[in-house]
Amino acid sequence: MSTVRAFMDRHFLHFNSREVVDAAKAYEAHIQSGGKMMVTLAGAMSTARIGRILGRLIRKGYVHAISCTGANLEEDVFNLLAANDYKIIQDWRALRAEDEKALYDQGYNRVTDTCIPETIMRHLEERLIDVWSKAAKSGERKFESEFLFDVLSDASLEQHYQIPKDDSWMLAAKEMGIPVYSPGWEDSTTGNMFAAACWRGDVSTHTVVKTGTEQMEHLMRWYLDASGYNAMKKNGASKLEKPSVGFFQIGGGIAGDFAICAVPAMIQDLEMEDCPFWGYFAQISDAVTSYGGYSGAVPNEKITWGKLEVDTPKFMIQSDATIVAPLIFAYLLGE
């Protein structure tokens, strides 16, 4: 029986399809050489159920950190707890404004063809307010993802699962102990909930959730360890014993912009001239280089910003990430 990997090797030979296979092969080579990988999630990848395959990739040890939008952070958990209650709109392009209002009145929030019920948001809100308020009273401070990990650690939650545990990338990240950063979390549903909870006094202080700059410092320190830089310094070596951390970017926006800036911050702002550049770069985006759009910036442009080196393996795949990312991940899993 033919595999996804065999099919891609045989048919994805030129142009954009060749770039997909080359990116997958270089990703695999990076891991096999001892390198770590940062994956960034923009768009609505969690709503598109990327967790079904990303969770397996995390558990296999092919993903070592995640940077994602607040929406991707929470929507993996929404899906875990309410996938059967979602409404799917087959002909979503034909929806009229009146149809959208009807969905709103029914308690649905639409993401392209998928409508998420408000009920699951309120269910999660209740649990989050509980962990936020307890942390505020005890003086504990955490990242947004860590509070969601606390919710996922509650044994009473499992009775509400509507999909297999293996299909949740957040559960996989929690199990594997990898860091999950969510820059700009304030614009998400749970970020809005937190602001409202502070307004009402349900949570006594905004500072219970760590800031974006605290996430950046944590990421910088994680990078130095994951890249082998700290070991290099400790051993008195002049170069890394393995490739530095790779960067696999799905979509554009803040999830990728935030994470990739960790390296130039150390080189240019901390003046760590021997800090290694990112050791691999691939991006899947439907954006093109025009009108100053960063999401469509070609990889070489990142050299001028101190993010990539001249010889860093670089791949730019201009396609639909909901199609291409699962293909690459399946290739890596040997499916």
From TrEMBL:
Domain of life of the organism encoding this protein: Bacteria
Any one GO MF annotation of this record: deoxyhypusine synthase activity
Residue ranges of coiled coil: none
A GO CC term attached to the entry: cytoplasm
PANTHER family, per the entry: DEOXYHYPUSINE SYNTHASE
UniProt record similarity statement: Belongs to the deoxyhypusine synthase family.
Protein name: Deoxyhypusine synthase
Organism listed in the record: Sandaracinus amylolyticus
